Amino acid sequence: MEHLLGAFFLFSAFTLAGTSVVTARFVTHHIGTFTITVVSMFFAILCLAPLCGRKLPQAIGTMDKKQWLMLLLQALFGVFLFRMFLLEGLLHTSAAEAGILTGATPAITAILAWGALKEPANKKTFAGILCTVGGILLVQGILAKGSDFASEHFWGNMLVLCAAASESLFNIFSRMNSLKTDHAEKEPLDPTVQTLLVSVMALGLCLVPAMYEQPLASLMKIGVVQWSALAWYGAIVTALSFICWFAGIKRCSAYTAAAFSGMMPFTALILSVWVLGEHAGWEQWSGGVLIMLAMILIGLRDGKRDEQSERNLSIILSDDVHYDRR
User: Fold this and answer.
1) Closest Cα partner for 79 from 17, 137, 158, 146?
2) Which one-letter DSSP state was computed for residue 277?
3) CA 225 to chain centre
């Protein structure tokens, strides 16, 4: 039952996160990258603070230095760097392609889990990684003969891939934090409290760079559509999506999360064509199919392998505990 509940939360998290690419498209050419993040974090905090109530001071009182560090890393990679790369990339590429390329996250997560966390990888995992590479090459136009692909467009897509890599590191840190809490037999942070703390940290990281973008002048010029997009970015894409993510990752493995992350590029691609009226050619659709196939392959892991992954990470965490005691 817990696994099904976790799957529901992950499905909701990635579906909502998929709207971020289209939402950002409404504001990227009107406001600076860091200003967008600061304002959206402000809306997120406004929504989250009343929900936390007394749970916030209670949680803060029980947190140690490593938990604070882990939250800071989540804010750095999951919000600050992810949005910086994504929003800058959207200035040079289409929302449809950016949405598809965020589907590289599971493959990058799998590589990190295999290389850094020593999680076992099977043939399906490697096949999924190869499918991801093929899908990216198609989206980039490299496999299309005679493709006229501007260098600016290429670097825009590269920035989106950097955003996917940042999201992958966020996934790894989130899972490590969850397992470390379980290993230490501590009460896990409430997802609402965790999301609020990450949002506050992300706002702090973006505040100084945003000051160089003349935020007040640019915000005074935008209209209802842009303000609505910022509110959605904060309340739904950040607050609600992150709450669902933290609730789901506590109950499921990183590979299960990787499988459900297919909803993010799928949602982004459909909304880009439907809402923004962007054109997606055969390269984009074929690349999208390959990347989504990769997510399914990476997510298809049996219970024994997931248990082995948990044991390997538990050994790493145990070694950390023993080292700290020395």
Assistant:
1) 17
2) -
3) 24
- In the block, tokens 């950097």 appear at 162
25: CB partners within 8 A, 6+ apart: 90, 95, 272, 276
Cβ-proximal residues to 311 (8 Å cutoff; 6+ apart), any chain: none
Residue the block writes with tokens 């390269």: 283
**Span 156-173, average pLDDT:** 87
Number of domains in the chain: 1
SS3 category, 63: coil
Q: How many Å from the N-terminal Cα to the C-terminal Cα in the chain?
A: 40
**Per-residue pLDDT reduced to its tens digit, 213-225:** 999 999 999 999 9
Contacting residues for 201 by C-beta, under 8 A, at least 6 apart: 71, 72, 75, 76
Question: Which residue is associated with the tokens 């005691």?
Answer: 325
Whether residue 325 lies inside any domain: the answer is no
pTM metric for this prediction: 0.76
Report if residue 92 sits inside a domain.
Answer: yes
Domain range for residue 214?
2-318
Alpha helices (H) in 233-302, listed in sequence order: 241-249, 254-260, 263-274, 282-299
Backbone angles phi, psi at 112, to 5 degrees: -65, -40
Report d(CA 233, CA 109) in Å as an integer.
Answer: 24
Does residue 46 lie in a domain region? yes
Q: Whole-angstrom Cα distance, residue 226 to residue 218?
A: 11
**Structural domain includes residue 323:** no
